[in-house]
Amino acid sequence: MNPSRISGVVVLRKMSDAWTMAMDALLLRVLARHFGTRAADAAELRLLRRLTAGFAAALVLFPAGLTLILGAAAGLPIGVSLAFSLYLICAVALVAGTRFGAGRAADAREPDAEPMIDPWDYCPGLFLTLDTAGVVRASGGRDRDLFLSFLREPLARPFVEQVHVSDRLAFARALDDLRLGADIVVIDLRLDRPVLGLDQAQFLNVRLDMTAVRGPDGQLSAVRAQMLDIEGEMQMRDAVRAKEHEAHAAHELKSRFLAAVSHEMRTPLNAILGFSDILAGEYFGKLENDRQREYVQLIRQSGAHLLSVVNTMLDMSKIEAGRYELMLESFDVAETLTECERMLSLQATAKGVKLTSRLPRGLGDITADSRALRQIVINLIGNAIKFTPAGGAVTLDAMRRGSDFVVSISDTGVGIAPEKMALLGRPFTQIQDDLNRNHEGSGLGLSLVKGLTALHGGTFMIESRKGEGTVVTVTLPADGSGTVVADDNNMVEFPPRLSQPVSTDEESGKAATHDKAEAKIA
Asked: What residue stretch is flagged as signal peptide (predicted)?
């Protein structure tokens, strides 16, 4: 066959299909407006289409015949009016007769049957039946009237015309997914509001749950879609997003405040320590009596303690902001632990506490931040000494367990009550919160230990029995493989959450909690 003839046939077929769709849309609109008691079916559309095609010839013949008899001035308008009048009369009679006959047949079959109700009318939202091109063919649902009052005459029109321009691509992709074999596609869309009221938004947020209806050959024949109003859910999302932004801004403001205050306090503290050292050394003249020397020493000790607290606050703010940089190096862990023991031995002796260590030979090297490890051990030993009365003992143990390094600090101190265990490790939180607290401190020691352990990818465990003592165990990867590099996009949660609830042994009164101290992303 000639290719030009084939293309001509295709063009004529496309023109015929377009003419048929346009005629069906017009007839559906007219029938829905004037015969609203029942939706038009395919048989009525087919009969009206044939009637329209037949009267197309009458529209030419009637004016031409009357023109020959009455003349063009009177024949043309009379002929056109007569043709349209006969067409409308025949169309009304055809539709009314078809529906009347169908009603009589239904009554004859089931005289006592109740009228059929669409089961979708009991379901919430709006149900739409779409063809493969996305044109709306039927509607239903419990909230049909509410949605149809919002939409712009959706029947026999592509549903995409109702969708906001920015979401039309998502709707087209959903239809393509159904054509390619997907059975269910759920998308959130914004529908354009045709008329804006004083208290109405420009868009209506809806969720469209689309289900594919397939024929015997597996090809998509229709789409059944349920539309639900999600305006309340979107408002909740916006509220949650706003609260999250406020919390993030408050967290950043607090971290910046801690960093700024801690940094500004170090300058005068260094001056206080320097001048108190000069006075204690009597470089510019001897002090007159021992009380003056005692006061100078107290000034030096208080300044050193405050500087330690400020440094801890500065380190904590760095961890919270995700900007604490670990300087990894390989070093002898036994030597580092021995240095920490020596640094705190005078403090233990002054309080009457025996500080000992049990370090086996061959501990070897560890890859970690040596300063951070010293802070971990010093804070844990310092806490143990602080809460151990005179005559008690604090023991430092270390060992290798596979590829991990384990350090444990045990004491015979006051212990921790089970109900207080969940408070451990929170910044500025102290277990003894009564007015006559006997131990000074800022409540930052364990919080810093947990943060530094998290940065190394280690675990943190506490076992305690009130009145008998506490054992704190920190486990770190010996090769540094668990180290978290913190940057602007990788913030370590500080302090790490307790991964398991506190469990209490009622018989022994022993509370144990295991904190994995994982470097979670905040």
From this structure: none
Name residues whose C-beta falls within 8 Å of residue 183's C-beta, 6 or more positions apart in sequence. 211, 212
pTM of this structure: 0.44
With residue 140 as reference, give the H or E element that holds it. Answer: strand 136-140
- Give me the DSSP letters along 365-379: EEEEEHHHHHHHHHH
Same domain, 139 and 31: no
SS3 411: strand
One DSSP character per residue, 183-252 reads SEEEEEEEEEPSS--TT--SEEEEEEEEEEEE-TTS-EEEEEEEEEE-HHHHHHHHHHHHHHHHHHHHHH
- As for how many domains the chain has, the answer is 4
pLDDT band at residue 8, thresholds of 50, 70 and 90? Answer: low
Count of CA atoms in the C-beta half-sphere (13 A) of 268: 5
pLDDT exceeds cutoff 80 at 11: no
330 and 216 co-located in one domain: no
pLDDT, tens digit (0-9, with 9 covering 90-100), for 359-405: 888 888 999 988 888 888 988 998 899 889 999 999 999 999 888 99
The answer to whether 231 and 202 have CB atoms below 8 angstroms apart is: no
* CA–CA separation, 476 and 363 (whole Å): 13
Q: For residue 512, is it within any domain?
A: no
Answer yes or no: is 493 within a domain. no
Query: Whose CA is closest to 471, among 370, 387, 346?
Result: 387
**74 and 202 together in one domain:** no
| Domain membership of residue 419 as a residue range | 325-429+443-486
Domain shared by 97 and 242, yes or no:
no
Shared domain check, 278 and 204: no
DSSP bridge pairs for 211: 184, 224
What's the pLDDT tens digit per position in 113-125?
A: 455 566 767 788 8
Degrees to nearest 5, angle at CA 86 with 85 and 88: 65
- Same domain membership, residue 46 and residue 34: yes
